[in-house]
Amino acid sequence: MWDRLEVTYEGTNQVKEAKISMLVHEYEMFTLNENEDIKSMFSRFTNIINALQGLDKTYSNSEMVRKILRCLPMSWMPKVTAIEEAKNLNVLPLEDLLGSLMTHELSMQNKDDDEEKEEKKKKIVARMMKSWHLSAGSSKNSLLAKRNLVESQIRESTKREREANLKKSYASSATNRGITKAISLASRKRTYTRRRRRP
């Protein structure tokens, strides 16, 4: 009876080996997809790992940490190098790695947004200067005054945007620190409970 149920739900050993082989191939070829965020990537990775664990194929924590660092694109290499040099990968929890990568992703997005906005503002100033320059009777002094006015308005709006981005960044960092702190507190509580149970 049990043998029949096992074959029905898990398949024969041959089916099981085929599933393991397919999932191991997915694990080995795993990379961060273009325009995919770290959270989605980590979710896909966890699904593969869980499926392999269900088939009794496991990887150590350090193997998984190294695999995630290897799957990141070239633009992430400075961060990967910093993590490899600053942390002991043999004991680095996956949750800490996830928090670190998500924080870095947020700062990269803010930097890209700032550069994009700066580029747009330069184009706007150039267009306005061109239109003012073409308008009849504009003196050099009035053009300079208009240009200074536009640039000061752009600087002010950039300052407000940076402040808003900083607030978002701090909030995200606080969330990541909160997750890490909660995980740390949970592990301390388990350790404390085990110690109390000992005679």
UniProtKB/TrEMBL annotation:
Biased composition (Basic and acidic residues): 153-166
Biased segments, Basic residues type: 187-199
Annotated spans, Disordered: 151-199
Pfam (any one): Retrotran_gag_2
Membrane-spanning ranges: none
Name of this protein: UBN2 domain-containing protein
Annotated organism of origin: Cephalotus follicularis
